[in-house]
Amino acid sequence: MRLAALIIACVPAAWCADADRLRQSWLAIDGPDEAPVEGQAFEVAVDYALAAGPAATLTLSGYGPWIDLPDGTYETKRRHITYPGLEAQAEVQPGSGRQVFRFTVPKLDGGSGVLWVAAFRDQGGKRWPWEVRDSTAMRAAPQPLQLAAAVPNNLFTYDEPVAFAVSAAGRAGAALTATWTLTGLDGATAATGEQRLDMPADGGPARLVIPWQGRGVAGLRVAVDGVGAASTTCARIPDVMAITRGQPTAFGLHHLLGSGTAADHDRRMRAARRLGLTTCRQFVSWKSIEPARGTWRLDELDLALAKAAEHGIRPLLCLVDPPAWAMRERYNVHFEPFAFDEAGWSDAVGTLTRRYAGRIEAWEWLNEIVPGSEADPIAIYLRLCELGTAAAKAADPQVRTALAGGLWPRSFRQGLLAAGIARHVDILPIHYGGGDVVEWCRKLRGRLPFIHLKDYGFTKENKPTYCEIGA
């Protein structure tokens, strides 16, 4: 799921008189540790530091899943699914504090996550030109019929039976009949069948075995008369762990190391390893982990990287979302270079790399940037890469660094290469549509040891194609 968007306009000139206050203030969102369930009350805390001046209004808004690629039929535009009752605000005085907001999980629609956006408003109601974000996982209310598999994410290897534990609320000791249907990716029915379920007297689940010998992914729907129906997905895949003997592969995925409990990380990472994915590209919001210079909030990242090491996942961390204190000409930035506090940038990269030495495969300096509004974006981004790589290599000589993916238009990328950017990175990302992979491999043979194929997938005909998840 992608939880993104909500771009706000920023006119720095309107805030010149309050520049110091805007850079010295910060916010950090602290959501619930466990995913709350529909109808359950929960709390979201916002830690804040409001620099000297008048009181301000702290706002917190929750948004549902982001629809990034509307299909034109069911969804006609990019938008967030909206949920009622996830808006709150409170007046806060200058100083540091913690504001706790209380909500109830709404009826979920098409996803299980909420994006939180926290911001300040001045006494006239004008929104400050920066914000912070975080996300909370949420769960649908338990249904009478539930399916669970013993394998991660219902990923069955070819030598494993496609089997599910079926729970039927209130039917302990009953003899039931389950009717199931498998649907392929083409929408056609792949298989159907029935099975008697003898529900244990102690209320535990019964075992349902699907005699499916196909390969790939399928949708599964199971219906039990008098109980209800449940749907999920499943797949039959090669035993990649056995084939690779548990060694690292050349394949990875994006956004595996997000927030969550230790059990959440274990579940996601076991599924990734079962698919043969041993590298993870992960966005790390700089403003979320260092809201003020030298003020670190690293518990979530500590846990994620510890679990990645435990499961043999190699992280490529993409540092994004700079805090207002680290920017010189603005307070909020998206996909573009920005004039920055050079000492603050170097200190941040050095601190993080020392803390996680040996646990980070690589750093990526920003994401999918375009020239933007800076007078000399090439010089600014070149300097950011130069200082970031120097600080990272000083802390851990083995860590690698990557150029930002994308770099549109092509002249921007070519200008950076001509300016010598390759001296300051180890990895060149090739974004789908950004060039021919074979051509770039030939051009850079012997010069760069690693190439990141970003947003690449391949068809059954072995042709490259755009892939939102990435490769």
In short, what is this structure?
Strands 11-17-16-13-14 form a five-stranded mixed beta sheet, with no helix packed on it.
Mind explaining what this structure looks like?
With 471 residues, this protein is α/β, with parallel strands linked by helices. Helices cover 19% and strands 33% of the residues. The chain is built from 9 helices and 26 strands. The strands form 8 sheets. Strands 11-17-16-13-14 form a 5-stranded mixed beta sheet, with no helix packed on it. A hairpin with a 5-residue loop joins strand 25 (456-458) and strand 26. Helix 3 (262-274) runs parallel beside helix 5 (299-311). It is globular. Residues 1-13 have low confidence and may be disordered.
Which labels suit this protein?
471 residues, alpha/beta, five-stranded mixed sheet, five-stranded parallel sheet, 9 helices, disordered N terminus
Could you tell me the strand content as a percent range?
A: 25-35%
Find the count of extended strands (DSSP E, 2+ residues). 26
How much helix is in the residues?
10-25%
State the low-pLDDT regions, or none.
1-13
